């Protein structure tokens, strides 16, 4: 997905596209449509982006990406556009969002819908609500809300439909049909879908979920608009025969798609929905907060505020680990190198839907900001974090619905790329929160049953391996999807080798 920080750049690009292309073609019919479109986009987004709240809203981000991809191109290539004007717009196309960006944004909305149990009807109104005890409850109240159009909902439903994910396509297309009906089927030049398209996709989605009666009624409604559509006529005949043969409707057959992490999905989502720690977990009297020096002379005059989060696995939070200036320096260094994050796939690395983010790796000398952070990490942990005993600093930015499903940081297979450094497995993780997040984005430890909300400028440290070198299964953790905000983190993975005399083995081989 497109990073939320890139949206301001997109707005600048949008204005440049219109300035270069539209104003030069002052006599063509396209000018009227393009100027109207520009006015519409500007009116919708200029006020939203004056503050950080609007910029962090995934619904705002999705609609902007959609307008710059689908709607703008629909205006450019409409029948009203003259051929001699199209060439100028084609020159700008490579810099505009691609189809994969738009699809990724749509998938991000569906991910937020699932993990935070959000109602599609509320999302369409620009709200973030779930049903609790039969009533709609605000999960988060955005400072700026933007409703979705019938075409917006159609696009999300179509993305699900094309993946044969009828659980999501039914919900989003139902909302699309409702909104299209509200406009009495009026069509705008920038729209990709119509009421007929939404009815067509929704009817088949209901059929695939076993709701044949709904599929029939929607197909019959579609015939009012297109009475000579042979395919729909055949479908109506097919549905009528099925209803006669099957008897009464089977009811709602909507089922969420299966997941690789189905066994942990319920716990994972519960931990994400609490948007913070589990009260029972943190009632443990053995957990504490203190000013920590690790017996390091450099920390004696300025100890770090340490919060012990868990004893099994041992995990701590260091507050105010990094300064505002250092955060901006790290983000500036990482921005040019951000690429889609990958995961270990056997001996190779590849992108995966269960990890949605962009990342960059930063090397650093002892005088650079990265070198200074390495030195500070070493003082707090007592470990050697210099390469190759520690991996280079990884900076990660999460976009719309950005997340990382339950996983281990340490390698669980001898063929893992983690061992390419030839310094053993990842013994520990040090993760720095570089930015605040309004809602979502917690780090959830699944088996340990606690989650850590994003604390700006703080850092989490935990041990991935037991002292005997075996992986600690209680470190299974996940990055919850970002609901509202722009999440930046920096990861430092520390390896076994180089720590032999800094973290000694225990006399107990089982420890």
From TrEMBL:
Compartment list: Endoplasmic reticulum lumen
GO molecular function: iron ion binding; L-ascorbic acid binding; procollagen-proline 4-dioxygenase activity
Reaction catalysis annotation: L-prolyl-[collagen] + 2-oxoglutarate + O2 = trans-4-hydroxy-L-prolyl-[collagen] + succinate + CO2
Keyword annotations from UniProtKB, A to Z: Dioxygenase, Endoplasmic reticulum, Glycoprotein, Iron, Metal-binding, Oxidoreductase, Signal, TPR repeat, Vitamin C
Signal peptide location: 1-19
Enzymatic class: oxidoreductase
Cellular compartments per GO CC: endoplasmic reticulum lumen
Record-listed E.C. numbers: 1.14.11.2
Cofactors demanded by this protein: Fe(2+); L-ascorbate
Residue ranges occupied by any Fe2OG dioxygenase domain in the UniProt entry: 389-496
Matches recorded under PANTHER family: PROLYL 4-HYDROXYLASE ALPHA SUBUNIT (PTHR10869), PROLYL 4-HYDROXYLASE SUBUNIT ALPHA-3 (PTHR10869:SF223)
Quaternary data: Heterotetramer of two alpha-3 chains and two beta chains (the beta chain is the multi-functional PDI).
Function statement: Catalyzes the post-translational formation of 4-hydroxyproline in -Xaa-Pro-Gly- sequences in collagens and other proteins.
The family this protein is said to belong to: Belongs to the P4HA family.
Protein name: Prolyl 4-hydroxylase subunit alpha-3
UniProt organism field: Amphiprion ocellaris
Name of the encoding gene: P4HA3
